[in-house]
Amino acid sequence: MAQERLYDWLETEMRTLSYSMNPHEVPEYVKTNLKDDLRPYQEEAFRRFQFMQDNTLATGISDAGFQRKHLLFNMATGSGKTMVMASLMLYLFKEFNYQNFIFLVNTDAIIKKTQENMLNSQSKKYLFDPQGLVIDGQSIVIQSVESFPTVKDKNTLYLKLTTIQKVHGELTRPKENGISLDSLSDEDIVILGDEAHHFNASTKKEQAQEKSWEQTIANMLYLRPNNKLLEFSATINMDDKNMAEKYSNKIIYKYDLGEFMNDGYSKNVLRLQSSENDEEKMKDALLLSQYRKLVARSHGIKAFKPIIMFKSSKIKISEQKQADFNTIIEDLTVESLVKYLKKRQSSVAKNGTLAKVFAFFLNQDLDAIIREIQEDFESRNILNANEKNMLNVENAVLLNTLENLNNPIRVIFAVAKLNEGWDVLNLYDIVRISEGAGVTRNATDSEAQLIGRGARYFPFEYEGEKSYQRRFDKENTDLRILETLHYHTINEKGYLANLEKSMNAVNLISARDETVTVYATKLKQSFKKTRVYQEGHFFVNERRATTAEDYASLDKFTIPKEWETDYIGTTFETNYQGQVIQDEEIQREWEYLQVDQRFFKKALQRNPFYRFDNLKTYLPLLKSKDELIESEDYFKGVALHVSLPKGQTLADLTAMEKLELVDRFLAYCADKIKRNFKKEIGLKTFHPLAIRDTLKDYEVVVAHSETGNKQTTQVIQSTTMKGKDWFVYTDAIMNGLELGLVNLMGSFIHRLEEKYAQVYLIRNDEKATRYKLTEFGGPRGYMPDFILYLENETFVYQIFIEPKGDFLEKQDSWKQDLLYALNGDDIELIGEDHHVRLIGLKFYNSNNKREFVQELSDKVNDGQLLDGRIDIF
């Protein structure tokens, strides 16, 4: 049976009462000795390590099969693993008296970077306080060594920075002034393994290799009982059964690239997909890069220097492209540039970034623009990273200090040496050279890794403040371009399919290039003066804690018996021009996949979440794994409703492809279970919320895809509501279906105003109110799109209205159930007598307008039909 994964165990353990009574915090001496504050996720990684060192937990950890000698931090590229490493060094030195540290890695490039991080207090990348380290009033020194001294200064950490190749050589062929197994056996050591996925050759080959790097590390680790190995890697393949067996009880913290990007610590990543030749791609990247620089300048951001990287498959091609680029710069003239801009302007997406860039330059003094381009991109400001001795010469310094003001480099030409160990923040354009480009999965895996490194956020200073997270995601400003990395791809079907798979494998979030519109709306001053706004209330239902009985079946976790999914094949359809048709444009048809027990059993074995001891945490009444498959309360009767490209059937799918669909469903279920576990359950008792404290002005950021959205009902637009006092916001920001509802309401609002003294339609946008109901007897939250507020001398009605497209009605049927349940006699409003009533209506859509109006009329107009225009969109 597969081992429980340590990070899953910790997720559960650190939510327990025993942990909450004794929470672990980053010590003050760690915080004060680091140059920058630890980010929340870095603190979480530290706390987990601290938790694992707590001797009071030793029995529990031993029982769970976990250990503290060898641990791995599985953290995204660019997330600051070295910062975590630095904090742990201080902690282990202070709390456990470790002084000997070996930093072990695969390449010299990372050694040079780590020297700047750990040892060079004059470097901008130094991680510790440049004024010096102090613990308990004593000055502490980190000293670089080749071997550990026999006599030690008690206030010194000794750090050996080396590659696994060098250590392997030293230990197998000991030399004078080097280390040996004998010398290391005298004192405890901590091995810090960076890019640790390189150290697993024996594990991957399923056989011990006496002379392997992996064995060398093991020999050092097990010399003494207290030796520790702390590994750091962004890419540990836990789908490999041997790797899973080795690391299930060692991965202490998992923070993937998707979490890193969603938390705003990276640039946004957009793909510019082009079938143009390499020369045009070079020109586009050149202009886009210079546009970024000029945008920064126009906003008072000084010395902003965006870097372009041209990535080739072979050194000869890279060298030729560098020569071609030099020629492009030298041959630039006003006439040739105008011609190019106009030609390209007519061929790119009208709402894309390049269209904006070309329009910008066509309105500039191109003579001055060209002079600056030729100065910025002259040959001495271009670096070729392909020389064999690149990392041992002066150019290596330029390559690793690209953010520095005195570093003139604007362009890098490279093949493969920069995928690991390259720490650059101001990389903004990566251009995939088409000539000779590899289209295999191995090639795109490498590119996904490079994009992940390039996505690191550049903390530029704006209006006197420097941020380490994105600031402009929700603002309509051209400053967004300074928080965006563009990856200029090649337009080849197999390549694009593999690139998407590679990016998905590392959870790298990207999208095709897009522009953004920001719509803003405010509460009308006339509404803010009313008694309804100043004294009125909304009502929200209360919740209670869950019990074991609340998790007696999967439907308690909101998992449906019929689950809809798309089957995305590896082939691409093309139009008559040979351009790839996006998947959402491919005609599709549905078919049911009835899942038998064989597939479920195999899929459950492949997913460690479904280990029985783990499932018991979430499903305390589950008696066996067989019950999970055979009981109606769980997976019995589940069917997958699969969307396939037209003309393809489930019979065309292999057993493995069907199994992958089940894998996807089980991953979805695991996510739903974890998300809904221990969430509170909604009750039918409601308490008041002041309207004035609930509503606020808001903005909506709208992204327009290059191809345009074909579903007009889903296109967000802004419509002025001037002169319509019954709508409380100045503008209606909504899609076509929602606007159709507003217009329909507007056509009979006068009839309501004849009956009620106060009539207001309130948009309940998540950015405006966060007003949310919780389903009765369940954990799901729900924000009805509109609240119709009606008041007369006798009653206050609050009617909850939800526009819902036909295609969503089935999956959101629980929301309809909640709306109808509001009409029951068992609803209790705290602090109110019977004059306030909550009402829920049937979903509104373009096909049921007459029924919707009739139901509303029955509820609030004594059954007399409100004579609105049913024909309104």
Entry keywords:
36% helix, 33 strands, 873 residues, eight-stranded mixed β-sheet, 20% strand, seven-stranded parallel β-sheet, alpha/beta
Q: What composes the largest sheet?
A: 8 strands, mixed
Estimate the helix proportion, in percent: 25-40%
Number of H/I helices = 32
Tell me the fraction of residues in β-strands, as a range: 15-25%
Could you tell me the mean pLDDT?
A: 83
Tally the beta strands.
Answer: 33
The CA-CA distance between the termini, in Å, is 58 Å
Q: What strand line-up does the widest sheet have?
A: 3-4-5-2-6-7-1-8
Q: Per the principal axes of the C-alpha atoms, what is the gross shape?
A: globular
Structural class: alpha/beta
Question: Could you explain how this protein is built, in words?
Answer:
The chain has 873 residues and is an alpha/beta fold. The protein has an eight-stranded mixed β-sheet, with helices on both faces. Strands 11-12-10-13-16-9-17 form a seven-stranded parallel β-sheet. It has a four-stranded mixed β-sheet with strand order 27-30-31-33. Helix 24 (597-606) crosses helix 27. The longest helix has 22 residues, at 655-676.
